[in-house]
Automatic annotation (TrEMBL):
The keyword Iron-sulfur does not apply. Keywords: DNA-binding, Repressor, Transcription, Transcription regulation. Pfam families: DeoRC, HTH_DeoR. It comes from the Bacteria. GO terms for molecular function: DNA binding; DNA-binding transcription factor activity. This is DNA-binding transcriptional regulator of sugar metabolism, DeoR/GlpR family.
Amino acid sequence: MQRTRQDAIEGLLPDERERLILARLQAQGRVLASELATELQTSEHTVRRHLRDLAGAGHCKRVYGGAILISPAGVAASVRMRESVDRKARLARVAASIVKPKQIVFLDAGSTNVAIAQALPDNADLTVITNSPEACMCMQERPGFDVILVGGRVGRRTAGATGATALLQIQQIRADLCFLGACALDPTEGIAAFEAEEAELKRAMVQASSQVAIAMTSEKLMTAAPYVVAPASAVDFLIVEADLPAARLASLKAAFDTVRVAAS
């Protein structure tokens, strides 16, 4: 006799159920305990237990009613710089189109923001303040850039300066535009980072900027990180990839002022 989907769901072992929940998290970015309980024909208590286990293993962050996937941006910068180079270049080209001559621009650390530094055209007539030594190197010998490198301790994961010295420098500047390097972003949870000092510096950049833009690869959207930077409402431009599912793109457009899609 043919086994039905209901039979398969009812026959799931706990480990199989947990793997299914993790797969749903990875596909959708967030899950609701009530919906999973209905779909898996089990109790919300059981689902919440699975979510606690997944959170304990570092896969997700528990939020009210469910969980959000943990961002993959926690790996070292040297690894991220080699990943998805073409995808980041496409995002960077759209980001560069936002910039106007004579602006003062914060360029936060991050592999996508290094790609933005490379995408900015020569003779752009910009003052760029960055805490990323690599982004600085991309611009320092090119015409049309006045580059200011923010000092401080450079972290292995971020490859950007953080700490009291960097924070003080940022607080003394008023920028027209900030390209923020977001470790994780979710319409409800907002922008987040993996380290406290990193989050503090990002908050200072947001507060010191007239406009904030984020260019982000798809796997970091609808994800979480431990330290809150700012709400979704702080972002004026969100630049995303063309491969986003329609439902996810719609939820982002509902949460952010301007969403631009980079051509594939």
